[in-house]
Amino acid sequence: MRSRRPTSTTALIERERTALFEQPPLPLEVAAAGVVAHALASEVTLQSTDPWSRRDGFRLHGGARRHFHLLRGSEEHAVALARLHDGALQLHIGDATWPLQVRALSADRHDIVIGTQRLGAAVYAHGEQVAVFTPAGRADVRDVDDIAHAGESAAASGQLTAPMPGKLIAYMAKPGDRVTRGQALAVMEAMKMEHTIHAPRDGVVRDCLYAAGDQVGEGSELLRLQD
């Protein structure tokens, strides 16, 4: 006889309120480790047999360093992930450093060793918002994509520019479309990664100045908005 799986009901949130909303906050380094683990696991899925598709930061000489810009409440934190030449990882926040090991157990679950502490973490991302759950508590942070937001102050005039040299992959809106603040407008490929350009304000797309596949230089105007 086949066992029946439990079904979700409208009472799920209330029944699991403590687990979802009332857990103690996690230390910043644990939250950052969860963000890093989730980002690395997500990027592995983008790799192929092409060696140029590798996202592991491999260098022939020396190590590599990757930066994360995290917001926790009103506080900003600069986090760096260092990959040493032997492949070992280190997590840096301010003057503090922790040895780090991460292993993906599934799309959202990770085995993390930070310093001498080992823990299982469930990490869920929706856009830039990231929720990290462990048996010890929960953390909610925003993993800010600085490249995607680059030039937003200049974009208030209606111009949206490329934050770095790269290739325009696609426009997500066409002239005449009304868009809202935060809506994805264009996708670029730069430094072997895709970056989404978002609308800095509400408006109407007036012009798309390139075509998909075009190479664009840093500061090139990609599209124009009007009220």
Written account of the structure:
Helices cover 15% and strands 44% of the residues. It is mainly beta and 227 residues long. The strands form 3 sheets. It has an 8-stranded antiparallel beta barrel. It has a 4-stranded antiparallel sheet with strand order 9-16-14-11. The chain has a 4-stranded antiparallel sheet with strand order 13-12-10-15. It is globular, with a radius of gyration of 20 Å. The N and C termini lie far apart (63 Å).
Keywords, please?
227 residues; mainly beta; 8-stranded antiparallel barrel; 4-stranded antiparallel beta sheet
- How does the helix and strand content classify structurally? mainly beta
Which percent band covers the strand fraction?
Answer: 35-45%
How many strands, which pairing sense, and closed or not: the largest β-sheet? 8 strands, antiparallel, barrel
Show unreliable segments: none
Give the C-alpha Rg: 20 Å
List the strand order in the largest sheet.
Answer: 1-2-3-4-5-6-7-8
How do the helices and strands follow one another from N- to C-terminus?
HHHEEEEEEEEHHEEEEEEEE
Fraction of residues in helices? Answer: 10-25%
The oligomeric state of the chains shown is: single chain
Number of helices: 5
Distance between the termini: 63 Å
Question: Averaging pLDDT over every residue, what do you get?
Answer: 81
- The best one-word shape is globular
Total strand count, please?
16
